[in-house]
What we know:
- The chain has eleven helices and eleven strands.
- It has helices at residues 3-15, 18-25, 29-43, 59-82, 101-115, 128-137, 190-197, 211-220, 229-237, 260-263, 269-278; strands at residues 48-51, 54-57, 91-97, 120-126, 142-145, 154-168, 181-184, 206-208, 224-228, 242-243, 250-259.
- The protein has three domains: 3-82, Winged helix-like DNA-binding domain superfamily/Winged helix DNA-binding domain (Arc Repressor Mutant, subunit A), CATH 1.10.10; 91-158 and 254-278, 3-Layer(aba) Sandwich (D-Maltodextrin-Binding Protein, domain 2); 161-252, Periplasmic binding protein-like II (D-Maltodextrin-Binding Protein, domain 2, 3-Layer(aba) Sandwich).
- The chain is of the alpha/beta class and 279 residues long.
- Helix 5 crosses helix 11 (269-278).
- 45% of the residues lie in helices and 23% in strands.
Amino acid sequence: MNLVAVNTFLTIVETGSLVRASERLNVTQSTVTARLKGLEAELGQTLLHRHKSGVSLTSNGFRFRRYAEGMIDLWRQARQETSFPKGVGTVCNLGCHVDLWPGLGRQMLDEIERDYPSAVLSAWPGNQVLLEQWLGTGLIDAAITYRITTHEGQTMHTLGEERLIMYSTRPGHRPGADPGYIYVDAGGDFGRRYTAAYSSEDFARISFGSAVWALEYLMDHDGAAYLPEHLARQALAAGQLHAVDDAPVFTRERYLITSDKAATGWPWLSDVIGRLLQS
């Protein structure tokens, strides 16, 4: 498949018209049109609806867009990695769930950098869905996450449980109805377990899909929330947060998913996993 045509398609989608795409790519509009038609002919599908005001994606265009973005990202990554100077050792492109970067994600990169200073490393934040997609397309070589479906050619390493504890900005806070309570969606079956424990309580007025964001918000407002223990440790030590007595404690597993092909070039993998398990 012609990557120039794929990049042209993405530029049209981003700019919203063939005219603006031609200006950005510094080519004629007829060239942009020819590239798009060639791509659609190769796929046997119409990717864009043409309007007087611009373009819009067809249903097939929506589906193709995700793969097109993956192809361009992989090409950029390939160009970067094949242009490394002599002396470069192992390469690791790590994806990490945003709530795990302050702990395991940062630690993993630090461990590799300390013991293998010639390693080339990159880190990408994402949620569980994105991390699974990136692993599947090869955009990343490994992912630190909570729950993910592994596929052929991938290995799952268990990194132990993480405790989710209710913290409050007010000492002596008791679990129960609280207008300042923030609900943090911890994914998996957390919602079911949380509902069973607090079935009689009012719903939270504010909710977050990231514990990192929730913690940042909590530091500027009075309230309470369930947060990963490792994430709240610093604020707890500084007296900014207080563990809520008698509140149920929940847990969730953490995993490192690795590409088997990439991991063959990682002499550090078993040592790093061992140290992550000790943290």
